[in-house]
Amino acid sequence: MPKTARGIGKHLPVYPINHIGQALIAHQPAHLGEYGITLLWAGLLLAIVVYLNHHKRGAMHA
Fold first, then answer.
1. Whole-angstrom Cα distance, residue 5 to residue 47?
2. What angle, 0 to 180 degrees and rounded to 10, lies between the N-to-C axes of helices 14-25 and 32-60?
3. Is 37 or 10 the better-scoring residue by pLDDT?
4. Residue, of 8 and 25, whose pLDDT is higher
5. 1: which residues sit within 8 A by CB, 6+ positions away?
6. Which of 3, 17, 26, 43 has its CA 20 to 30 A from that of 58?
7. What residues contact residue 19 under an 8 Å CB cut-off, 6+ apart?
8. Euclidean distance between CA atoms 38 and 44, whole angstroms
């Protein structure tokens, strides 16, 4: 896999979740950055869901 694709992949939520899971299985600590990236993606997803839900309600009452 190209180096650029691996670099982009490290910022997607699957990569840090995989590392966190491996660390938990091996009883080793995970890096704080991996938790941060995962929380950032979770927050972004939550913000999108809240926005879409709010936007849908506004369209229903119009």
1. 26
2. 130
3. 37
4. 25
5. 9
6. 43
7. 30, 31, 34
8. 10
pLDDT 10s digits, 20-57: 999 999 999 888 888 888 999 999 999 999 999 988 77
The pair of structure tokens assigned to 41 is 């993606």
Looking up tokens 């369209």 gives: 59
What per-residue confidence (pLDDT) applies to 45?
94
Measured CA to CA, the distance from residue 31 to residue 16 in angstroms comes to 9
What count of other Cβ atoms lies within 10 Å of the Cβ of residue 53? Answer: 10
For residue 60, name the pLDDT band (cuts at 50, 70, 90).
low
AA letter at 51: Y
